[in-house]
Amino acid sequence: MDIRTVSGAVIVPAHDEEAVLARTLDALRPVAASGTVDVIVVCNGCSDATADIARRYAGLTVIEIEAASKVAAMNVGDAATQRWPRLYLDADIQIEPEAVAAVLHELARPDGPLAARPASVEDVHDATFPVRAYYRARARIPEVGVRLWGAGGYAVSQTGHARFERFPDIVNDDSWIHNLFTDDEKAVLDTPPMLVRVPRTTTALLAVITRHRRGQLDLGVSLGEQSSQRARAILRSAKGPRSAVDAFCYAALTQISRMRSRRADATQWSRDPSTREPSPASPR
């Protein structure tokens, strides 16, 4: 689908993302040049060259705010555009213009979903063995319902956004959005997948899944039965030595994150530095 045939906005909150922002914005060049989709980069609490890098790209709106807050950045991005639907994209996610067009088109349909995201794929290149094992095991868990969280981007229609006035001050904004809509109101579209770079180190992965679990608990999501179902699915998927090792790594990391999520400091935002490597791409 041609990006010039749809209307909407892409809002990119960015906090100290000078190492990775160029590869995200390189992919969004055709979107910014379309004239029909606003691309807004909200640099929040940056102490590096994030804003300078974003300003090198034609067609973008670049806003700087003092607060280092993703949800504050998304609220500022909302105020800077009148276009609908809106895709909220993490600053380290690569997405094809075709995927942007597809999700905006789907959400603009009168009988379309209220929230959606493109397909996604996890890049485990250069990750440690426990990280690769964790994601192999997780991939064998059958999806239950429509999952918006964990992909680095999601979008809402104007009607969907009417469910809330502003993004609340929370850690897991994607889980919050996911829980705001029923499965009948959400969709994961069959598009070129967004590229999600997973944590490369075991320590970084533990920080990410601990933060996600604590965020779920803070949202009042009961994880007991959900965790039991996933554990049973992992055990059923173990068909040989390799898959058994994968299941062990998944179970061990999940258990450690469960214990860490009970600590008071688990509410603090912890970004994954292992995926923040300099991008070889640079704007011309």
Largest sheet features: 7 strands, mixed
Mean pLDDT: 88
CATH superfamily membership:
Spore Coat Polysaccharide Biosynthesis Protein SpsA, Chain A
Task: Pick out the low-confidence regions.
Answer: 264-269, 279-284
Short summary:
With 284 residues, this protein is an alpha/beta fold. It is 40% helix and 18% strand.
Would you write up a description of this structure?
With 284 residues, this protein is α/β, with parallel strands linked by helices. It is 40% helix and 18% strand. The protein contains eleven helices and seven strands. It has helices at residues 21-27, 29-33, 50-55, 70-79, 97-108, 129-139, 158-161, 173-180, 202-218, 224-237, 241-260, and strands spanning 8-14, 37-44, 60-65, 86-89, 115-123, 153-156, 186-197. Helix 3 (50-55) links the parallel strand 2 and strand 3. Helix 6 crosses helix 11 (241-260).
Secondary structure elements and their pairing?
Elements: E1 8-14, H1 21-27, H2 29-33, E2 37-44, H3 50-55, E3 60-65, H4 70-79, E4 86-89, H5 97-108, E5 115-123, H6 129-139, E6 153-156, H7 158-161, H8 173-180, E7 186-197, H9 202-218, H10 224-237, H11 241-260
Parallel strand pairs: 1-2, 1-4, 2-3, 5-7
Antiparallel strand pairs: 4-6, 5-6
Helix pairs in contact: 6-11, 9-11, 10-11
